[in-house]
Amino acid sequence: MSHLVIDNVSKSFGELPVLRGCSLSVEKGSVLTLLGPSGCGKTTLLRTIAGFITPDAGRIVVQGNDISDMPPNRREVGYVFQNYALFPHLTIAANVAYGLKVRRTSRAEVARRVEDALRLVDLSTFADRYPAQLSGGQQQRVAIARSLVLEPSVLLLDEPFNALDARLRLTMQIELRKLIQRVGITSIFVTHDQMEAMTLSDTVAVMHKGVVEQFGSPLDIYDRPRTAYVANFIGRAN
Ligand code: ADP
């Protein structure tokens, strides 16, 4: 059984159909990338999985449970925002602890879990610093720690490298891939950059105008593009 199943999800904003019957699945511990040009519906699909958007039709299933009607905070789905959304006036430890405090966790438990999360992203020695004192890549890891501390079963990342210097991107991509493998968490990324998708993913969904044009391994998509759109998008004539 797949860890997460997106089953025939559709969504319109007013008259505009943004997702048109999207179906995908992600295996436990693997990385799926939603790849496509700006406006094709990637972020809307990610936000639907997180529960910030209610689809008009279709289901989101995690470990066999239909979570379509659950509010975001009960879904065990972590969401890492594009700009990381860290609180500048809080220390790194306090930023990571934030979500736990909302959940009324005991102080000792908060301390233990924050320590574990910071260790996972290799930032233990940064606990007492402030976001502005960290590099872009380190801030991203804090944002990931803030999600992981809630022990989600799925991690969603919206364009995780957008805020980073182009020179840093490849290093960060490799580091993030290693981090996800180490944690072993099922993850879904959004990107418009095909090289990024190919570097990071076990599977890729190429999207176009709210439709999943092709879903497969990076190699599959490169070697056997199934539609003219996919062939064109990855730079190969059919
Ligand atoms: P992508 O992430 O692939 O760039 P989005 O999912 O952000 O695409 O957007 C897909 C389309 O839906 C775009 O045309 C966008 O303008 C529209 N859209 C996204 N969110 C809303 C919203 N809340 N209200 C109206 N239109 C929206």
Tell me briefly what this model is:
This is Spermidine/putrescine import ATP-binding protein PotA. Belongs to the ABC transporter superfamily. This protein is of the alpha/beta class.
Describe this structure in words.
The structure is a single chain. Helices cover 35% and strands 26% of the residues. It has helices at 42-50, 92-102, 107-120, 136-148, 166-183, 194-200, 218-223, 228-233, and strands at 4-13, 16-26, 31-35, 57-62, 65-66, 77-80, 154-158, 186-191, 203-208, 211-216. Strand 9 and strand 10 form a beta hairpin. Helix 3 (107-120) crosses helix 4 (136-148). It is globular. The site of adenosine-5'-diphosphate (ADP) has 10 residues, from helix 1.
Which descriptors apply to this entry?
238 residues, alpha/beta, 35% helix, binds adenosine-5'-diphosphate, nucleotide-binding
CA-CA gap between termini: 33 Å
Helix content: 25-40%
User: How would you spell out the order of helices and strands?
Assistant: EEEHEEEHHHEHEHEEHH
**Number of helical segments?**
8
What is the radius of gyration computed over CA atoms, rounded to a whole number of angstroms?
18 Å
Which stretches of 5+ consecutive residues score pLDDT under 50? none
Mean pLDDT score, rounded? 91
Instruction: Give the neighbour order of strands across the main sheet.
Output: 6-7-8-3-9-10
Strand composition percent: 25-35%
Shape: globular
Largest sheet: 6 strands, mixed
Strand-pairing-aware structural class: alpha/beta
Q: Could you give the count of β-strands?
A: 10
